[in-house]
Amino acid sequence: MRKSFPSGFVWGSATSAYQVEGGWNADGKGPSIWDVFCMIPGKVWNNDNGNIACDHYHRLEEDVALMQSMGIKAYRFSISWPRILPAGRGALNQAGIDFYNRLIDALLAAGIEPWVTLYHWDLPAALEFEIDGWLGEEIPEVFAEYAELCFRHFGDRVKNWITINEAWVVAILGYGHGVFAPGKVSKDLPYRAGHQLLKAHARAVEVYRTRYQAIQNGKIGITNNCDWREPLSDSPADRAAAQRALEFFLGWFADPVYKGDYPDCMKERLGERLPSFSPEEKALLKGSSDFFGLNHYTTMYASEAKPDAGSGSVYGNGGLSEDQDVDLSVSPDWEMTDMQWAIVPWGCRKLLEWIAARYDNPPVFITENGCAFDQTPVNGQVQDDARIRFFQGYLTAVHEAIEKGVDVQGYFIWSLLDNFEWASGYSKKFGITCIEEGTLNRIPKASAQWYGEVVRNNGL
Ligand code: GAL
Q1: For ligand 1, which residues put their CB under 6 angstroms from it?
Q2: Three-state secondary-structure class, residue 267
Q3: Which end of the chain has the least Cβ crowding within 10 Å, N or C?
């Protein structure tokens, strides 16, 4: 039976600057920590980099036409901070401002609503050198100044702002496991970086709310990522482990924004290792998101850690698992994407219900959901049935959540174009269909057509 989504539901697709733009040093752009990270041999699969990527910087009109042909109504992209502020602060690069003006204008002319992320991981390298990046005392202020520049230049046309994409990934992969820029390996730095990310978010929102929101009539929020954690058994210990894993994952960044402070279980377990907020910072954080941005990809089982099992050993998904005492696992029955992320639509529904219960049913926008499959084009096309099945499953789960009262208001597929997948580069395994740089991924995919149909069927 065909399901309809609520009227006004936002249907979109998403990308990020470093993953698609290319033009890494074009027209005065400064280097970002990802430009530098990619230069270090061995950091990225095949030593790939985003120098050209999808060449979106030079082909934006073509890409907007592609979106229009798919029928999508919203496009989430990120601004490259060093493209408009080459040194992170100070002198402006007008060519960068011009590029985003052209993109925004082209989208609006095509009837596509821009959703703009201010930070999707490409910190200006100058700020890493000069003020210790996300560990620096000054960073919240410097971020707020950059954000203000964006509101000032683009806010007359951009009505949907996302401050930070996936602070968890920045903190854990950038400062804990060290597999993403800036590549630091530490047990304590993730909590310090996370703290500064939250303060930076709150300051940018404060600037928007006090100086721009009333005039520009937009909304602003933060996007966090979370997988679902299903208790491995019904035992109280495993149920508590799953809850703890979710609090260390999503609660870490969503509790301060909705409740004004970190989850108790983090405070208890981390003690001094978790920085604390001043009363002023708590007040600024609480209620600092007009919507709940969620990136969701997969599900794992969680159980109470067994002393010898190698706690939470799955790379990248477990956070700093020894802090949580949680073991993670997957069911052999679950189908996997080629990124080895399990396809479990009911996990998406359960996560949405968890968010609604914990945060008093906020408006949720799924700002990323998608899957990677290693596909070979046939006659210049990809018949990607697995991806269609994936979207059917997850959209059905989202619909079920809505029927249960969860206030989901939008859904963005990741991604519009196959692109540079961070430390995995252009590995086919990570879903890149066409690896010839500069001609990346404009291959017509059956799923794009299918998604267009869904959008049209919902009367948009
Ligand atoms: C997210 C990230 C995206 C993309 C995606 C997986 O964590 O925000 O940039 O890497 O995962 O393809």
Answers
A1: 16, 19, 165-166, 169, 225, 295, 368, 414, 421-422
A2: helix
A3: N
Whether the CB-CB separation of 354 and 263 falls below 8 Å is answered with: no
Establish if 261 belongs to a structural domain.
yes
Instruction: Tokens for 441, please give them.
Output: 């991924």
- Asked if 241 and 311 touch (Cβ cutoff 8 Å), the reply is no
Those residues whose C-beta lies under 8 Å from the C-beta of residue 286, and which sit 6 or more positions away, are 256, 257, 258, 259, 260
In a domain, 1, yes or no: no
Residue 2 lies in a domain: no
Please provide residue 233's backbone torsions phi and psi, each rounded to the nearest 5 degrees: -135, 175
Enzyme catalytic residues: 166, 368
| pTM of the predicted model as reported, rounded to 2 decimal places | 0.96
294 is in which domain, residue-wise? 10-457
How do residues 163-198 score in pLDDT, each as one tens digit? 999 999 999 999 999 999 999 999 999 999 999 999
Closest CA to 168 of 198, 140, 188: 198
Ligand 1 geometric centre to CA of 371 (Å): 10
CA of 167 to the centre of ligand 1 (A): 12
Helices within 155-292 (DSSP H only): 167-175, 189-207, 213-216, 236-246, 252-259, 264-270, 279-285
Q: 50-80 pLDDT, tens per residue? A: 999 999 999 999 999 999 998 999 999 999 9
- Of 124, 341, 85, nearest in space to 225 by CA: 341
Measured CA to CA, the distance from residue 282 to residue 202 in angstroms comes to 9
The tokens for 17 are: 């600057």
What is the SS3 assignment for 137?
coil
Give residue 122's identity as a one-letter amino acid code: D
Beta bridge partners of 32: 124
Query: Starting at the edge strand that comes first in sequence, how are the strands of the sheet with 326-329 ordered?
Result: 228-231, 299-304, 326-329
**Structure confidence by residue, pLDDT tens digits, 245-258:** 999 999 999 999 99
Total domain count, the chain: 1
- The CATH number of the domain holding residue 283 is 3.20.20.80
Helix H or strand E segment including 313: none
Asked whether the bond before 7 is cis by omega within 30 degrees of 0, the reply is: no
| Mutation to probe ligand 1, out of 297, 414, 417, 420 (largest number of atoms < 8 A from CB) | 414
Q: Which residues contact 282 (CB under 8 A, 6 or more apart)?
A: 256, 260, 261
Tens digit of each residue's pLDDT (9 = 90 or more) over 347-402: 999 999 999 999 999 999 999 999 988 877 888 788 889 999 999 999 999 999 99
**Domain for residue 153, yes or no?**
yes
Structure tokens at 365: 């926008």
